[in-house]
Structures are given as structure tokens and as C-alpha cells.
Amino acid sequence: MAGGLKFHPHNYAPMAAELDFESVVERYYRPLYQFAFSLTRTEADASDLTQQTFYVWATKGHQLRDEAKVKSWLFTTLHREFLKTQRRQARFPHYELSQRDHELPAIDPATMNQLDATQVLKSLAQLDELFQAPLALFYLEDYSYKQIAAILEVPIGTVKSRIARGMAQLEKILATGLSASGLLPKEPHG
Amino acid sequence: MDKEQAKAVLALYRPGRDGDDDPEMAEALAVAERDPELARWLSERGAVYRAIKAKFKSIEVPDGLKEQILAECVTRTKISWARRPAFLAAAALLVVSLALAVFWLRPRTENKFAVYRNRMAGTALRDYRMDLVTNDLNAIRQFLQKNKGYGDYVLPQPLAALAGVGCALLSWHAHPVSMVCLEADKQNPLYLFVIDRSALADPPPVSAPQFARVGKLATASWSQGDKAYLLAGLGDEAFLRKYF
Q: Which residue intervals of chain A bear CATH 1.10.10.10?
């Protein structure tokens, strides 16, 4: 690897409470990349998003006073940067969800273990975009719902609702995939 | 709280995480403790949650990403030299005005060629996904052309004589980038990146290629027509010069 890096951006832009840039990268680049990959599903885009997030940190992180908020600040920034890249794309569709969208399918956890991450992320991609970021944070990080709401900059009730609906949709898609592959019995119609 | 209400609340329950800090969740958990059927359902839900969580947590981070992040911030922050705090602390009104002038006159750092070069070099160093694997350069050109890439790239003769390995469609700040892998030798492919010149604030010159080292890679960059070219490969400058 590029072991010869001697430049420390914090020499140029002081960070909150003397935080060292490299140690912030070391500590958070993995969870940030996983969140980015959950949103973009491509390595190149996830890497770009993660890099952009740290660039914003290098230039604006010194404005943050509370060290304890660094991680959530980075996640919020990454999500904002992701939304910027989505601006030219179709806006979030508005549609009403029925009560059935909250219903959880019956899935055997042991069967779920046979899935791989790619299948789960492909299924996540089929969800409405509104649900993807809250759901990714729900599974990836041990944030409280209040913290997820703060990161995504939406009310906590909205976050809970989106996670509940998203989770139900995700599990339905996974169950459909498992049924198609013969791992789950097909549900009777009617 | 009745059983159905508890179930609705517990659908969001994450084992080991939720409970104490949420009175509603705590109440729902208490209902489950008194109801064996609900407790069994909750146990299964917890197992499903853990199974899906494990899939998310298994997302692999590409090798070299940390180094790439550090390298890119070096490049981009160096460009923003005027942000140095000591400099700012000492700056008088005149210097602030000068900095503002520099800020308004300079091109956007995000579109700097050095940043683009680092990003693409990082792509070559990490695992990447080929969209098409073939030795057939015509097939590569057709594929790129059909998929909004740059199939009409023009190469110096020694480079054009190499066989292909494959290609991939990338993007950089919403601009398409075509990556063509060429077979320099059996163990050491060359990576050619093609982007529209207008995507870069300071595209490489049209004249002779410029050589620069990025980590383990030697790179050469040049412009021709409306495109900017970046060639990267493991080795030194002399290795790359053979292809011009």
C-alpha cells in the first residue's frame, strides 16, 4: 500500500478537538463504505462517496465541536452527498402504502442464512429509495432511531415508519427469491 | 398495550440494541414476556434480523481504499493551500481579499485532473469489475459506444498495437469514464482511462504526454481531440514510454 504518505490534512484544516485526520479515516472508513455501498451498490460509486465524505470532513470538520458527534456527522455528510448525486435522477415517487406493507412474511432464519450479501443488497435496491438509507443504517449500525433520524434529517416517526415498511418489503422480496429458488415453500394463492 | 400493538412495536426490535431507552419498546417486551407465542415470534424475528444484519456487515471494503482516501485528500487539500490555519491567522484584510480573488478565479478543485488521476489509479489498484472481457478491441469499442462510453478513442501506434483484455464503464463526478485494459505483458496489464476533456478543469496538454507516479503506478496523461487520456500501469516511466 501507499505507506509513504506523510501529509496530514489537519495541518491545513484543524479538526474538531485536535482529531487526527488519519485516525478518523482509520476508524470510520469501513462503516462509511458499507453504508455507501448499501446505497449505491457499486464499488466505484461507494468509494467515490466515501472519499468525498472525508474530503468534506477535511475541509469542514473543524467546525464540529463535539468529538462524540464525528461519526454521525460523517454519516449525515455521506447521505447528503449521496442525495446530491441523485438530484438529476427521478425524485422519490409518492405513493400510498397499504396496511399490508407493514406485514412481515414468515421466513425461517436458517433459510435466510443461506442468502449471500449480494442477494440482500439486490433486494434492497428494489425498494423505494425512501426506505433504503434508513434500512441500511438499521442493519449496519447500532444507532438509536433518534440518531438515525438525525443522520437522515427526518423526524423520528418517519424513520420508524420507513424502517418498518422497508423491512417488510425487503423480507417479502427475499422470501419471493427464496421461494423461486426452492428454499422456501411457495405461498398458496388466493 | 395488547398483543397486536406489542407486535407492531416489536417489529422494530433489535436484539441487544433496543429496549431500555424506549419506554414503548420496554412495554412491548414486557407483553412478550407474558405471552409465549409472542415470545417465540420475537425470537424468530431476532434471528431474521441478525441474519440480514450479518449480510450487510459482510460487505467487503476494497483493498487500498484507506490509502486512496488519504492520497486524494492530500491532493485536494494541497490545492486548497489557502486554507492553512496559520496562514489565515496571520492574514490581514489585504490577504483575505487576495484569497477571495484566488477562490473566485481558480477552477473547481473537485474537477482537477490530479484528483481524477488519483481516483482512476485507485480503481486500477483495487479490485474492479470488468463489464466486458475480451481480447477483441473492436468488440471493446462497440461495447463502449453502445453503452455511452468512448468507443472512438484514438491511441498512439505502439499502444494501439496491444491486444485488449476487457473494458469497464466508470463514472467520475457524473461524467462517463471508459476504462480499457490492454495486455502489455501477461502479468501486467495497462489501464487506459478516457474521459471528455470538458469534465476536467485542467485537462492534460495536447502535446507530449505527461508522466507522473501515483502510488505503485506509473501514469501518462495527454489530450487528443475532445478527450483526455490517462494510461496507468505497474512499473516505471520508462516502461510506459515504450508505448508512445
A: 102-180
Examine the pLDDT at B40 and tell me if it is beyond 60. yes
Q: Which chain B residues are Cβ-neighbours of A55 within 8 angstroms?
A: 72-73, 76-77
Mean pLDDT of all residues in A25-54:
90
| pLDDT at site A13 | 39
Q: For A134-181, how does the pLDDT look when each residue is reduced to its tens digit (9 = 90+)?
A: 999 999 888 888 899 999 998 888 888 899 989 888 888 888 877 776
Q: What is the ipTM of this complex?
A: 0.76
Q: Measured between CA atoms, how close is A55 to chain B, in angstroms?
A: 6
Q: Under CATH, to which class is A102-180 assigned?
A: mainly alpha
- What the block records as the C-alpha cell of A148 is 438515525
What is the nearest CA distance from A139 to chain B, expressed in angstroms? 5
- Among the listed residues A93, A79, A175, A84, the one whose alpha carbon sits nearest the alpha carbon of residue A135: A79
Which CATH class for the A9-86 domain? mainly alpha
Using CB atoms within 10 Å of the CB of residue A148, give its burial: 0 to 12 exposed, 13 to 18 middle, 19+ buried: buried
SS3 B104: helix
Residues in A touching B80 (Cβ below 8 Å)? 12, 59
Say yes or no: A29 contacts chain B, CB-CB below 8 A.
yes
DSSP string, A124-181: HHTS-HHHHHHHHHHHH----HHHHHHHHTS-HHHHHHHHHHHHHHHHHHHHHHHHHT
For A46, which residue in chain B has the nearest alpha carbon?
B61
Q: What's the whole-model pTM score?
A: 0.56
> Which of A15, A51, A99 should one mutate to test binding to chain B, selecting the residue with the greatest count of B CBs within 10 A?
A51
| CA A170 distance to own-chain centroid | 14
Residue B161 carries which DSSP code? T
- Please name the member of B21, B127, B174 whose beta carbon is closest to the beta carbon of A144: B21
CB contact under 8 Å between B70 and A5, yes or no, is: yes
